[in-house]
Each structure stands twice: as C-alpha cells, then as structure tokens.
TrEMBL record:
Residues 40-53 have a biased composition (Basic and acidic residues). It comes from Alexandrium monilatum. Residues 117-127 have a biased composition (Low complexity). Residues 1-97, 117-138 are annotated as: Disordered. This is Uncharacterized protein. Residues 8-20, 55-72 have a biased composition (Polar residues).
Length: 556
C-alpha cells in the first residue's frame, strides 16, 4: 500500500515484492481472486460467474458436503452409525407444507429446497443396505460442536484508543512468533480483525456453534497464521495433533500471494485478505498490474483495448491473451476478501472529526487534485504517466483548477486539499489499493481510481458511478472521465453522499466487528469448518489427535 498520503510523503511504506517463479504451482503470483469473479462475454462486457455476487464478498463455497445429509433432488440419505435409511420426500403441490423434517446438517442454501409436507420413509432391502455400507465415502464424521482457535500475540496492534473494543482475548503465548506480521505497523490490523471476529458473539450466533480462544498454538483446533509462514507452522515438529490453519495475507496487492501449493494443503481451511481482483486470471509471468500496463502499451492502436473504458470482461480477456492462466476453482474457493481496511477502521472517525461536514461538491474550488510521492520502480513509471497526462489536460482546459503535488506535505495541508477538491486521482502504489482511496471519500471528494470496476473489497467502496469513478490505468481516458464528471456536479454530489456512509459502517473495531456484511462473510467461510475439522482430526498421525477427540466427547 501506500501509507496515508501525509505520512507516505516522507516515503515510508513496505516495498512491493512478487514471487520469482510465477508459473510454478508452489511459487506462483497468486492463487485466486477472493472477490466475486466475472467472465468475459463476446462483446467484452462483464458477466457474473458462479463465484459470487457483486457485493464485494467471496461466496466461499463449501469444499466438503454436509456431514449428516447429502441431498439429491427430493431424496435424502441419512447415515447414522452403520445403517443407512433413505427418506423420500414427494414434491408437494404448490402451496403445500411439510412438517417433521430435521434441518440438522443442512447448509443455508439447502433450506430453500425443503418442502413442508409429511415425509414418507422406506428402509432399503438388506442387500441394498449392505451395498450402501460397503460403498466408499458414504461414512462421514459428525460435525464437531465447537472449535478452539489461536492467534499469535505479535499481531496485536499498537494504535491506542483507535483499537479499543469490546473484550477480545489477548494472546500471550509466543511459541510461534514466526506466524505473526514480523513488523509492527498497520499490517497487524488484518490478523487482529480476524482474531476479534472469531471471538465475536455475532459470528458465533450466526454459525450456531462456539468458537473459543485457546492460548496454545499446538493444541488449538484452528490457528491463525501469516500466509507466508503457513508451511513453517504445518512442518513445526512441536505440533502434537492435526490442526486447521487460517492464513492471513498482509500484503497490499490485489493478486493472491499465497501459492497454489499452500492452498492445496487440506489443513489450510482458507486464506483471507482485504482487497482483491474480481477476475481469476492472475497466474502471469509478471505481476498482474505490470502485465496489464505492458499489454495496453502494446495495443495503443487496437480498437478493442487502445481506447475507451476497460470493464472487467475486457481486462480478463486481455490477461488471457497475454498467457495468464485462471486460478483453479478449488484454490479460488479458499480465498476470501473479508477484512475491512485498517485506515477506515482505525482512523475513519478521526478524519470525519477533523473534516467535520464535507463541503458540497459545487462549493469546492479545486476541480482535480493529485498528491503523492513519485518514487520506486513501477510506482514511479505509473505515476509519472499520470503527471504527464494531467499536465497535458491542464494546457487544454485553462478553465479547470488543478492541485498537483509530488512533494512532501503535512497532514493539515493534505487534509485541506482533499476538503476543497471535487475529483481526486488515486493511482496505484506498491499495491493497487491505496490509503488515499479512503481518505478521498472521508474528506468528501470523489475518487478516480484505475480499474475500480475490477477490484473487490468487503467495504463496497469500489462501485463506479455509485461510490467512485473508473479510469484506465494508462490514463488514456482520463480527460474524458474528468470532463464528463465536471459537467454533472449533481452526479458528483450523489457519489459523495453515497461513499461516506459506506465507510462509516466500519469506524472503529466495535462497529466493524458487528457489521452485517463482515459477519456474514466470515460465517460463509466457516460454514463447514466443523465438518472439515472432524474429518481432518479423524485421520491417523500427529500424536494424540484421536485421544483429544475422545476427551472432548466428540470421538470418531
């Protein structure tokens, strides 16, 4: 990322790195778009695919079927001990109701299939029952009644009052400090939010089973770990039992940094991050954003890609033409974009307090602004292109007012610029997301963001035409986008009024941890966790796993 602009002007921040072996399964550039995906239609428009809706949340499809029920049309096979009983539910007439059916073991999307009419039951003949018992894969472990979890204490943030919340259990066990963020700073927020959500009553109420913090990384059922250290934990010889891992991506890039090799491990329940691409074509020879810009530079005269907007479908087609491969669905399902941004959670209320009541768009004297450092390899080239484009636009539109600065500014100057700006251009930094995206909205300016339509976030802030404006990353349509925007200040006013309330829902950890979208996103991720855990813990090996299950009264 970029730090907030007032801070990043002093050139602080983490460098963007990318795996060197981009085409190897174990060390590729990514393993899945966590946000809802789309596919390209023949006319280049974006079409929803099966991976999610447009709410910026990954659907998190279950990777195993229900422990107790496997449904097919209107018949249900229920496995109890060694016997198999088939329940047949005739499809009733429209409006009819059924009663007496158990919902145990049914996932939420099954509930719509249930008909409310008395169910007739038939017991299979002995031969049929014998065949059912002999068939592989029919016997499943019952889901556990609760899970314990552990988060390394190194993830605990040091943000003072901004991190005050309801009681969140504080870890003290430093046995796996290699699993934390390694460096203190804003990146600690990501795992801290996961930790707080796992401990939240709202999540457990929605799941219907208990998650309990256990300050012991080698006995907890579920361990939270930085994505880059997952394999280190799974290979730690001090582990005494089988466990599940929830990985946390701490990088600022939209592409999935966790390797396919790690995601394919059955002990890895999921990997979570705070923003992602909506397309799945991430396995490129070079980083995705560089691949996009290089491909566009080679297609300046192309009628499809050389000019005009770049919707999601076109970007996916462009990457496909460049040889980028789609993330396998089984890996993509494990990646979830469900962590709100640290800046809004920790600093959102501070921004609103100082900006107070944002000026209406029509009263803002500056038409277009950009404030930010122009350093680094990729960032320098990308931002120099923006400065060049703005300089040319300024010469052709003498009636527009610009504020362009790549020099250091203090927070008061920066806040004053945003508070008096109609349109703020926020280019890519070390990652595609930037803290300036949120600072722009918090100050009441309208955000212009490269490929905003291709970005997914649990805070639904990237909705072109509703909360921001989309622009090409090579800036070829920047002048047109600005001209159309400034010609309709009423539209800009509507965008301003829509963007800020979205962020306000995530001000502070209390609000963010109770946010309905965030809670539901975590519930989808964990919807089948107890089933997966029961089957994983039942496998032989890793010490006293079997004894542990028996001690809990949930033996295999």
């Amino acid at each position: 990322m970029e730090e907030p602009a007032a801070e990043q002007a002093s050139s602080r921040g983490q460098g963007f790195t990318h795996p060197s072996s981009a085409l190897e399964d174990s060390k590729d550039t990514g393993a899945g778009s966590a946000g809802p995906g789309r596919t390209a239609s023949e006319d280049g428009k974006a079409l929803p695919d099966e991976r999610g809706s447009d709410n910026g949340l990954t659907q998190g499809e279950n990777t195993t079927r229900d422990a107790l029920s496997i449904r097919s049309n209107h018949s249900e096979k229920t496995y109890s001990g060694k016997e198999a009983v088939t329940t047949l539910t005739p499809k009733p007439a429209e409006g009819a109701t059924t009663a007496g059916m158990s919902l145990v073991g049914m996932r939420p999307h099954h509930l719509g299939e249930l008909q409310r009419a008395p169910a007739a039951t038939t017991t299979p003949a002995p031969d049929a029952a014998k065949k059912q018992r002999a068939a592989p894969g029919l016997r499943r472990q019952p889901a556990l009644k609760h899970l314990t979890f552990f988060t390394p204490p190194g993830f605990w943030p040091s943000c003072g009052d901004a991190c005050k919340s309801r009681h969140i259990p504080k870890p003290k066990n430093h046995a796996i400090d290699y699993c934390d963020a390694q460096k203190s700073g804003y990146k600690n927020h990501y795992a801290y939010f996961v930790h707080g959500m796992l401990a939240s009553k709202e999540l457990q109420d929605q799941l219907g089973w208990e998650l309990q913090f256990l300050d012991d990384p080698f006995h907890a059922d579920l361990v939270v770990c930085a994505y880059s250290q997952i394999n280190d934990f799974l290979n730690d010889k001090r582990r005494v039992r089988r466990q599940l891992v929830l990985g946390v991506e701490t990088g600022d890039s939209a592409y999935v940094q966790t390797s396919l090799g790690t995601l394919s491990r059955h002990e890895v329940l999921a990997v979570v991050k705070h923003h992602s691409w909506r397309f799945r074509h991430e396995r490129c020879k070079h980083p995705v954003k560089e691949t996009i810009l290089d491909a566009l530079a080679q297609r300046k005269g192309d009628k499809d890609f050389g000019q005009g907007p770049l919707p999601l479908g076109k970007v996916a087609a462009l990457l496909s033409a460049e040889g980028c491969r789609a993330i396998p669905e089984e890996s993509s399902r494990k990646v979830h974009t469900i962590i709100p941004s640290w800046l809004t959670v920790q600093k959102g209320a501070w921004w609103v307090k100082h900006v107070k009541h944002p000026k209406p768009i029509a009263e803002r004297p500056v038409d277009v602004s950009f404030v930010g450092a122009v350093v680094g390899d990729f960032r320098k080239e990308h931002r120099e292109g923006l400065l060049k484009a703005l300089k040319g636009i300024g010469k052709r539109h003498r009636d527009w007012t610009f504020h362009i600065s790549s020099s250091k500014v203090n927070e008061y100057q920066y806040r004053d610029v945003l508070a008096n700006t109609k349109l703020f251009v926020s280019p890519w930094g070390y990652g595609e997301w930037s803290g300036k995206d949120e600072e722009t909205m918090l100050a009441g300016a309208v955000l212009l963001k490269p490929l905003a339509s291709c970005m997914s976030h649990v805070m639904p802030m990237y909705k072109p035409g509703e909360t921001c404006l989309d622009v090409r990353p090579d800036w070829r349509d920047l002048e047109v986008v600005i001209e159309e925007a400034l010609s309709d200040t009423d539209r800009l006013q509507r965008i301003q009024q829509a963007a800020l309330p979205i962020l306000k829902q995530f001000f502070g950890y209390d609000k963010a941890l109770q946010n309905a979208q965030a809670v539901s996103a975590f519930a989808r991720l964990l919807s089948n966790a107890t089933t997966i855990a029961a089957e994983e813990f039942a496998k032989p090996g890793r010490g006293n796993a079997h004894a542990m299950l028996k001690d809990r009264g949930e033996g295999i």
